[in-house]
Design goal:
It is an enzyme of class 1 (oxidoreductase). This protein has twelve helices and 14 strands. It is α/β, with parallel strands linked by helices. It folds into two domains: 184 residues, Isopropylmalate Dehydrogenase (3-Layer(aba) Sandwich); 126 residues, Isopropylmalate Dehydrogenase, CATH 3.40.718. The protein is globular. The protein starts with a strand and ends with a helix. Bound molecules: adenosine-5'-triphosphate (ATP) and magnesium ion.
Length: 356
C-alpha cells in the first residue's frame, strides 16, 4: 500500500522521537512492502519563530491531504511568556479543531519487564490492558457562558456543561466498535447521580449497547472509577467518558504502568485523517541530548498502522519488537533500572529496527 503521512515534529524532544518513529515506519514499510511518504509541517514554537503563528495554514492543508498525521510535541520555556495567540499549545488546540478530532484514545498496556517502574504492586498491575476513550469536543471545555459574573453584588462565576446527543453517540459508538476487537467490555463513566448530562450519557450508552449484543456494558460513577483504576485496573477493557472526566482519568491511567515515555495516543475524527502522538510533552529539560525515550512515539506509529491503515500485522510487529527490546534489557534514562543497559534515543531506535 501507498500512504501519505503528515509529520509535525514540533519542539523539544518532539523532533528526536518523531525521527525515531519514522525510521521504524520505514523499516516496517520495507519489510511488508508498503510505501510511506512523509511530508513535514511546522507547528508550535518552531512555527511561531519562523512564520509567526503556532499553526500555519500550510500545515492544516498538509494534514487534511494526508492519510494520517504524526505529531511530536510542542512548547517550551522560550515561548511561555508570549501572548496567548502566540503560544505553541494554541497550535495543538487548533489542529484538533481543524481536523474535527472528537475522540482521544489512550491505551495503557502492561510491559512485564517494566513492572518495577509502576507505582502499583506487580500483582495489581500485571496484565493491565485497557483503552481510555475520551470525548474531546464538548463538555465544560467549550460550553458558553464561561465567565465571571456579578450576582447580588457579589463575585460569582459560571461554566457551562453542554453536550449534544450526537456528540455522545459518536464517541460511545466508537468505544463499542473498539471493544469488539478486544475483550468486549465497555465501562461508561459518568456522574449520573448528580448531573443531567450524565443521565443523558447513560441513556445514550444503553441505546447504543443494543446494537452490540456481543459487548458487555457497565456503568461506573467517576469517583468510583478513579478509585478502581488504582485498586484493580485489570477489571477494565474499554473506558469511555466525557471530556473533563476523561482528562483526569487518562492522566491517572497513564501513570499505572510507569513512564510517560512509553505511552501512545490517537485522536479520531469521523472522516479522517487521524492524529497520533505520544502523551508526553516536549521535555525541554532533556531536549537535544539524545536522552528521550522514543517508544511512546514508536507505539503511536503502531496505532496509526492499525487504526488508519488497517495494517494489523505490521502494528503487531512494532509492538512485539518494543516488547522484545525491553525484555532484552535496553532502557532509556526514564525507564532505567538496576542491572539494565542504558541507551540513547538513537540506540533505542536502532534496537527496535534490528528486532523488527
Ligand atoms: P507539557 O506541558 O507539554 O505536557 P510537561 O512539562 O507537563 O510538558 P513533559 O514535557 O512530558 O511534561 O515532561 C515531564 C517530565 O518527564 C520531564 O522531566 C521529562 O524529562 C520527562 N519526559 C517526558 N517525556 C519523556 C520521554 N519521552 N523520555 C524521557 N523523559 C521524558
Ligand atoms: Mg503535561
Amino acid at each position: 500500500m501507498e500512504k501519505r503521512i503528515a509529520v509535525l515534529p514540533g519542539d523539544g524532544i518532539g523532533k528526536e522521537v518523531v525521527k525515531g518513529a519514522i525510521e521504524v515506519l520505514q523499516a516496517v514499510g520495507e519489510r511488508f512492502g508498503h510505501q510511506f511518504h512523509f511530508e513535514y509541517g511546522k507547528i508550535g514554537g518552531e512555527a511561531i519563530d519562523t512564520v509567526g503563528t503556532p499553526l500555519p495554514d500550510e500545515t492544516v492543508e498538509l494534514c487534511k491531504q494526508s492519510d494520517a498525521v504524526l505529531l511530536g510535541a510542542v512548547g517550551g520555556p522560550k515561548w511561555e511568556s508570549q501572548p496567548v495567540h502566540l503560544r505553541p499549545e494554541r497550535g495543538l488546540l487548533k489542529i484538533r479543531k481543524e481536523l474535527n478530532l472528537y475522540a482521544n484514545l489512550r491505551p495503557t498496556t502492561y510491559f512485564q519487564s517494566l513492572a518495577d517502574s509502576s507505582p502499583l504492586r506487580k500483582e495489581v498491575i500485571e496484565n493491565v490492558d485497557m483503552l481510555m476513550v475520551r470525548e474531546l469536543t464538548g463538555g465544560l471545555y467549550f460550553g458558553k457562558p464561561s465567565e465571571r459574573i456579578q450576582q447580588n453584588g457579589r463575585d460569582a462565576v459560571v461554566d457551562t456543561l453542554f453536550y449534544q446527543r450526537n456528540e455522545m453517540e459518536r464517541v460511545i459508538k466508537l468505544a463499542f466498535e473498539l471493544a469488539k476487537s478486544r475483550t468486549g467490555k465497555v465501562t461508561s463513566v459518568d456522574k449520573a447521580n448528580v448531573l443531567e448530562s450524565s443521565r443523558m450519557w447513560r441513556e445514550v450508552a444503553e441505546e447504543i449497547a443494543k446494537d452490540y449484543p456481543e459487548v458487555e456494558l457497565e456503568h461506573m460513577l467517576v469517583d468510583n472509577a478513579a478509585m478502581q483504576l488504582v485498586r484493580k485496573p485489570t477489571q477494565f477493557d474499554v473506558i469511555v467518558t466525557e471530556n473533563l472526566f476523561g482528562d483526569i482519568l487518562s492522566d491517572e491511567a497513564s501513570v499505572l504502568t510507569g513512564s510517560l515515555g512509553m505511552l501512545p495516543s490517537a485522536s479520531l475524527s469521523e472522516a479522517g485523517p487521524y492524529l497520533y502522538e505520544p502523551i508526553h510533552g516536549s521535555a525541554p529539560d532533556i531536549e537535544g541530548r539524545n536522552l528521550a525515550n522514543p517508544l511512546a512515539t514508536i507505539l503511536s506509529a503502531a496505532m496509526m498502522l492499525r487504526l488508519s491503515f488497517n495494517m494489523n500485522e505490521e502494528a503487531e510487529a512494532i509492538e512485539q519488537a518494543v516488547s522484545q527490546v525491553l525484555e532484552a534489557g535496553y532502557r532509556t534514562g526514564d525507564i532505567m533500572a538496576f542491572g539494565k543497559h542504558q541507551v540513547s534515543t538513537t540506540e533505542m531506535v536502532e534496537q527496535v529496527k534490528a528486532t523488527l
